[in-house]
Amino acid sequence: MSVVHLNGEYLPADEARISVNDRGFLFGDGVYEVTPAYHGRIFRWGQHLARMRKGLKTVGIDFDAASLEGVNRELLARNGLETVPVACVYVQVTRGIAPRTHAFPDPPVPPSVYGFAKRFDRPAREVWERGFRAITVPDQRWALAEVKAIALLPNCLAQQAAVEAGVRDAIFVRDGIALEGSHNNLFAVFGGVVTTAPLTNYILHGVTRDLMIGLAGEMGLPVEERAIPLRELYRADEVFFTGTTTEVRPAVEVDGRTIGEGKVGAVARGLYDAFLAVTGS
Ligand code: PLP
After folding, report:
1. What spacing in Å lies between the alpha carbon of 51 and ligand 1's midpoint?
2. Which of the residues are catalytic?
3. DSSP 3-state assignment of 192?
4. What is the mean pLDDT of the chain?
5. ∠ Cα 77 80 83 (to 5°)
6. 3-class SS at 54?
7. Closest residue by Cα to residue 263 from 251, 278, 280
8. From atom 10 of ligand 1, which residue's Cα is the shortest distance away?
9. Residue 1 above 90 pLDDT?
């Protein structure tokens, strides 16, 4: 039985209870973060913390997220995850418990904090080397996609569409532009140029995306942050996704069209190897 964190307490998952009046439950009114730990070392916490602080500020939840570093450590320790190659810690903060009405509780109520940790099993290398397939879906999300909001219904619908299509990933397309995946950022390679959507309000500002841009730079690969029209994406030499629970995942087919030569490309492979090296996992 996994041990979870709920409002300052650590307890078995099946003993954790929240109120039906929690605004996370009623409205999806909260933000979350997923942070990886490699052999027990929390990776890039500063960036995850900064994103959570920004999201909390944007939605007006008054909570000091710095305290969550201790929660992350404790969840890893209490679940015996300090020695596994990869674990992920999920933490969400909602606006708290109050009778249902849209406007914020006045006076404010204490935010609710919930967290859990679990082991992450990456695909076997031979499976990764075969590459994966993706589809595109219309982006029906709100215009604050840079906030890591717990309200993820459009992302769930997108990923379900991928499952029903028998593929691994779904790419959000808005006004003909391929933006990001349902739970990961999107990269394409055009003539050796590593290309990804710019940091706007229409994508999540991924910590792994940022890491990839840095690693590509170190490998001497040119990087361009610009809008990628879907019709151009189909003609990319390579397409791949990045994210905390995606790591680097190459797509060799999008919407039934073969990408490049239909094989995992050298850039995705090089970045994946660099990612494994830098995370020591
Ligand atoms: N884009 C979306 C919509 C996501 O949900 C995520 C991660 O959950 C990402 C991108 C990747 O972000 P990160 O690399 O920080 O995990």
Report:
1. 11
2. 148
3. coil
4. 98
5. 95
6. helix
7. 251
8. 184
9. no
Distance 243 CA to ligand 1 centre (A): 5
Confidence of residue 198 (pLDDT cuts 50, 70, 90): very high
C-alpha separations of 114 from 41, 110, 153, 279 in Å: 21, 13, 19, 26
What residues line ligand 1, using a CB cutoff of 6 Å?
Answer: 34, 180, 183-185, 204, 206-209, 243-244
Ligand 1 center to 244 CA (angstroms): 7
Alpha-carbon distance of 57 to 50, in angstroms, equals: 11
Residue nearest to atom 2 of ligand 1 (CA): 183
pLDDT value at residue 204: 98
Q: State which ligand 1 atom lies nearest to the alpha carbon of 48.
A: 15
Cα separation of 118 and 84, whole Å? 10
What distance in Å separates the CA atoms of residue 245 and residue 63, rounded to the nearest whole number? 26
pLDDT (tens digit per residue) in 124-156: 999 999 999 999 999 999 999 999 999 999 999
